[in-house]
């Protein structure tokens, strides 16, 4: 965790997203510096997941722009207007942003190692032997080296999510996006995933994490963002936001989740 570098790695500028007549994001502006761990909290339906999906263009924003190191994501500027880029160009851009989903989204017909190495071999064009060696090392990193040849159905939910994290890391992304990575887990399995994420934060990985785990948000984040009704209501260091929020809506939300 540092975030001391002046230039942001990620910039989100005036982002809007509509689904039909429903406006889910309403002009979100966000910057993430290299090495920062930022957690996004807020009630269900506040736009947190949609924001992540728009950042890596799994959902196309209605308007607004996303930049990685001052390079447009999902768009190109021709000197007069913006145009959406093709799927092949977009797939290349997405390799810079590793995404870890609520549901692990592992390929059931591939082993843990096969899931981790598929992207590097097919997308990054790494030699298979090199990808396997790196994949094995990443599985060791998340505590699953001994499960490399197991299929997802033989792994617990926590183990599957740790494989998903290793898979994201295998693409050597500049930014890691986590969409409520523990929400589908049984309570006793949550800690093993959060411990891996804590270790990544301590390494200085740049991470944007949507989470309902308030203790994790307090302990690990450099900055906490509270979203509600499609806007960023408040943001700040965890000690400030949790102990002395400035907005009534933030205070109401924290009172409800802390008292549960």
Short recap of the structure:
The protein has 260 residues and is α/β, with parallel strands linked by helices.
Description of the molecule:
By secondary structure, the protein is α/β, with parallel strands linked by helices. It is built from nine helices and twelve strands. The chain has helices spanning 48-55, 87-94, 112-122, 128-141, 157-170, 187-203, 214-220, 238-243, 248-259, and strands spanning 10-19, 22-32, 37-41, 63-68, 71-72, 75-77, 82-84, 97-100, 175-179, 207-210, 223-228, 231-236. The strands form three sheets. A six-stranded mixed β-sheet has the order 8-9-10-3-11-12, sandwiched between helices. Strands 2-1-4-5 form a four-stranded antiparallel β-sheet, with helices on one face. A hairpin with a 2-residue loop joins strand 1 and strand 2. The protein is globular and about 50 Å long.
How are the secondary structure elements laid out?
Blueprint: E1 10-19, E2 22-32, E3 37-41, H1 48-55, E4 63-68, E5 71-72, E6 75-77, E7 82-84, H2 87-94, E8 97-100, H3 112-122, H4 128-141, H5 157-170, E9 175-179, H6 187-203, E10 207-210, H7 214-220, E11 223-228, E12 231-236, H8 238-243, H9 248-259
Parallel strand pairs: 3-10, 3-11, 8-9, 9-10
Antiparallel strand pairs: 1-2, 1-4, 4-5, 6-7, 11-12
Helix pairs in contact: 3-4, 3-5, 4-5, 5-6
Number of helices, where a helix is a run of at least 4 consecutive DSSP H or I residues: 9
Principal-axes shape call:
globular
Mean pLDDT: 92
Share of β-strand residues: 25-35%
Distance between the termini: 29 Å
Outline the low-pLDDT stretches: none
Number of strands: 12
The secondary-structure class comes to alpha/beta
Q: How would a textbook summarize the main sheet?
A: 6 strands, mixed
Strand order of the largest sheet: 8-9-10-3-11-12
Q: What is the element string, with H for helices and E for strands?
A: EEEHEEEEHEHHHEHEHEEHH
Radius of gyration: 18 Å
Q: Helix amount, in percent?
A: 25-40%
């Amino acid at each position: 965790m540092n975030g001391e570098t002046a230039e942001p790695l990620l910039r989100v500028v005036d982002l809007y997203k509509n689904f039909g007549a429903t406006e889910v994001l309403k002009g979100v502006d966000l910057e993430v510096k290299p090495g920062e761990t930022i957690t996004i909290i807020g009630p269900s339906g506040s736009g947190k997941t949609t924001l992540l999906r728009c950042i890596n263009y799994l959902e196309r924003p209605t308007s607004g722009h996303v930049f990685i190191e001052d390079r447009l994501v999902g768009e190109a500027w021709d000197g007069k207007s913006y145009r959406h880029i093709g799927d092949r160009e977009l797939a290349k851009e997405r390799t810079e942003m590793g995404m870890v989903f609520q549901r692990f989204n592992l390929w059931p017909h591939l082993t843990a190692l096969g899931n981790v190495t598929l992207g590097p071999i097919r997308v990054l064009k790494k030699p298979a032997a090199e990808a396997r060696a790196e994949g094995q090392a990443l599985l060791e990193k998340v505590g699953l080296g001994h499960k490399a040849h197991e299929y997802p159905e033989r792994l617990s939910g926590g183990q599957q999510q740790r494989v998903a994290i290793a898979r994201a890391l295998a693409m050597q992304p500049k930014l890691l996006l986590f969409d409520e990575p523990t929400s589908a887990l049984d309570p006793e399995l949550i800690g093993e995933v959060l411990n891996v994420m804590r270790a990544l934060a301590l390494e200085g990985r740049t991470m944007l994490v949507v989470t309902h785990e308030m203790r994790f948000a307090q302990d690990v984040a450099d900055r906490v963002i509270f979203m509600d009704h499609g806007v960023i209501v408040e943001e700040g260091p965890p000690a400030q936001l949790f102990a002395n929020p400035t907005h009534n809506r933030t205070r109401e939300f924290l009172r409800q989740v802390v008292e549960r």
